[in-house]
């Protein structure tokens, strides 16, 4: 880190044995590995013997269900699907499709246990299911007889399954429509309060997948109609969790493979008593949502947290940039809020004024709390330090902390984040970055590989000075096609693309 006008003196130190922070939940991370030799051998054998049989049966039932759904939708326009519920033979065909999809889960080895009683549409027009952790959660739709779901419009284009989902008359969310949220809520209210015999509306109020360690903030969409809601809890009581699909963890294909190579998988669906809102809850959908969440958390025996879908977007952005400890940044933001650091923005001040320390790559706990001016005996302070002290050495790289906090704040573009990184990793001072510092800056903001970063450094350092500045890189990058997106997209355009899950791919030579 460079030298400065404002200097911070470090005093004291603390070893990692002197603090024992509590575990902080991160609902967006899932770890899954086959740890034992027995598990690996069993999985390989079942991959050869069991997997082909299950895949064949699943394909048969899915294709058969798709054929029936295609027949049921024949002659209907999209507008007609949204205007009135299916009747007569089409409605009976929907029950046939549900039975076929239940066969899909049976063929996949799922043993489903149902607790409680599913309420009718008259009793509860809306059903709230949580925690949402997997594409397997769709099993609840089968048990309920094919309710309408709230889904992204892109879902309709999924091969085979898109037609089956369309047959349930879902409420589609058009993310490229600026009025999408308003229109979705209006349609939910209209259906939930309609006198027509619409299917129940099934909503995953968390809005994204978690690892089921807690219930995150419920979106209020399902609660705007102010009608009775049936809470439904879903559990997967298996020794090996092969279904949880989060923002950081195994891919969908890996989960599918491991699930289909288990002898069987348990799934438990519990229908709780219908929740009738009070007059106050009818007027305040957020209060209604929070109270339903509390009921479900109690039944599940897990805590509630104030994480939201926006935290998922933060993780997605951090991972794309390859920020240090990207999966943990939602925890960092939460702890900073607890400590009041989000109000003081001391990190911004320190980096702008230039921080002075012996070696910012090796900072002790007492030095850490001293610089940030936070209480050393506070559990949140200890947890924050522990996130960056993964090896339990009692020392962290302070630069990684600064970059993680600042790169995702103020909706910075990748180029702006790189400018911040250049300040943070500049050990020489005066804005000059040696090859090692430059590599760290671009690897942790633009997600370049170390090898490619060195190529860029050598080409940008035309005079072979052994260092380059941020301005040197900008001048070089403006002439290269692979960096064109850094300069061609405005922040608004980037946010629009991010909202439709089509984030810009800045370079071909990114870290895997």
Which class best fits the helix and strand makeup? alpha/beta
| Count of DSSP H/I helices | 22
Radius of gyration: 26 Å
Number of domains: 2
Q: Taking all residues together, what is the mean pLDDT?
A: 84
Instruction: Name the beta content range.
Output: 5-15%
Strand order of the largest sheet: 1-7-6-2-5-3-4
User: How does the major sheet shape up?
Assistant: 7 strands, mixed
Secondary structure tally: strands: 9
The termini sit apart by 28 Å
**In percent, how helical is the residue content?**
40-55%
Taking pLDDT < 50 over at least 5 consecutive residues as the criterion, the unreliable ranges are 1-22, 490-512
Pfam family, one: Acyltransferase
Transmembrane segments: 44-73
Keywords: Acyltransferase, Lipid biosynthesis, Lipid metabolism, Membrane, Phospholipid biosynthesis, Phospholipid metabolism, Transferase, Transmembrane, Transmembrane helix
Family: Belongs to the 1-acyl-sn-glycerol-3-phosphate acyltransferase family.
Walk me through this protein's architecture.
The chain has helices at residues 37-73, 78-83, 88-107, 139-143, 161-166, 180-192, 252-260, 279-283, 285-300, 309-321, 329-339, 341-344, 346-353, 365-372, 379-388, 398-407, 414-424, 435-443, 450-460, 470-477, 485-488, 491-499; strands at residues 110-116, 126-130, 148-152, 171-173, 201-203, 229-235, 265-271, 363-364, 395-396. With 512 residues, the chain is an alpha/beta fold. It has 2 domains: 16-23 and 317-499, no CATH class; 37-304, no CATH class. Helix 18 crosses helix 19 and helix 19 (450-460) crosses helix 20. The model is unreliable at 1-22 and 490-512 (pLDDT under 50).
């Amino acid at each position: 880190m460079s030298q400065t006008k404002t200097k911070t003196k470090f005093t004291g130190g603390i070893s990692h044995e002197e603090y024992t922070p509590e575990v902080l939940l991160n609902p967006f991370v899932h770890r899954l590995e086959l740890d034992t030799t027995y598990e690996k051998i069993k999985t390989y054998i079942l991959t050869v013997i069991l997997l082909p049989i299950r895949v064949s049966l699943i394909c048969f039932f899915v294709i058969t269900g798709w054929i029936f759904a295609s027949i049921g939708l024949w002659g209907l326009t999209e507008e007609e699907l949204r205007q009135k519920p299916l009747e007569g033979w089409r409605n009976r065909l929907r029950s046939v499709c549900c039975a076929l999809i239940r066969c899909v889960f049976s063929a996949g080895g799922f043993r489903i246990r149902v607790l409680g009683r599913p309420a009718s549409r008259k009793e509860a027009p809306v059903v709230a299911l949580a925690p949402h952790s997997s594409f397997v959660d769709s099993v609840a739709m089968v048990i309920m007889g094919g309710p309408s779901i709230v889904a992204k419009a892109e879902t309709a284009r999924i091969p085979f399954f898109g037609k089956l989902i369309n047959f349930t008359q879902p409420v589609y969310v058009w993310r490229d429509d600026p009025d999408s949220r308003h229109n979705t809520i209006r349609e939910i209210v209209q259906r939930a309060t309609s006198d027509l015999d619409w299917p129940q509306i099934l909503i995953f109020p968390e809005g994204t997948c978690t690892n089921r360690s807690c219930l995150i903030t419920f979106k209020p969409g399902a609660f705007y109609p102010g009608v009775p809601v049936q809470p439904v809890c879903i559990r997967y009581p298996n020794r090996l969790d092969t279904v949880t699909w989060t923002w950081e963890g195994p891919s969908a294909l890996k989960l599918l493979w491991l699930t289909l190579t288990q002898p069987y998988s348990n799934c438990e669906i519990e229908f709780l008593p219908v929740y009738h809102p009070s007059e106050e809850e009818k007027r305040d959908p957020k209060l209604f949502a929070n109270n339903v969440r509390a009921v479900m958390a109690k039944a599940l025996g897990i805590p509630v947290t104030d994480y939201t879908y926006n935290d998922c977007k933060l993780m997605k952005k951090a991972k794309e940039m390859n920020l240090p400890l990207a999966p943990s940044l939602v925890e960092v933001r939460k702890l900073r809020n607890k400590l009041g650091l989000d109000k003081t923005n001391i990190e911004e001040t320190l980096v702008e004024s230039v921080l002075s320390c012996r070696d910012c790559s090796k900072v002790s706990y007492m030095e850490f709390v001293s610089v940030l001016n936070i209480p050393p005996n506070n559990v949140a302070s200890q947890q924050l330090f522990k996130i960056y002290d993964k090896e339990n050495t009692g020392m962290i790289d302070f630069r990684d902390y600064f970059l993680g906090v600042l790169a995702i704040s103020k909706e910075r573009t990748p180029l702006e984040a790189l400018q911040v990184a250049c300040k943070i990793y500049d050990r020489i001072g005066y804005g000059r970055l040696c090859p090692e510092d430059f590599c760290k800056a671009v690897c942790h903001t633009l997600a370049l590989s170390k090898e490619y970063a060195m190529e860029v450094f050598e080409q940008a350092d035309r005079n072979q000075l052994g260092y380059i500045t941020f301005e040197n890189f900008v001048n070089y990058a403006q002439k290269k096609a692979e960096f064109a997106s850094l300069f061609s997209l405005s922040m608004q355009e980037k946010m629009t693309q991010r909202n439709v899950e089509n984030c810009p791919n800045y370079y071909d030579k990114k870290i895997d």
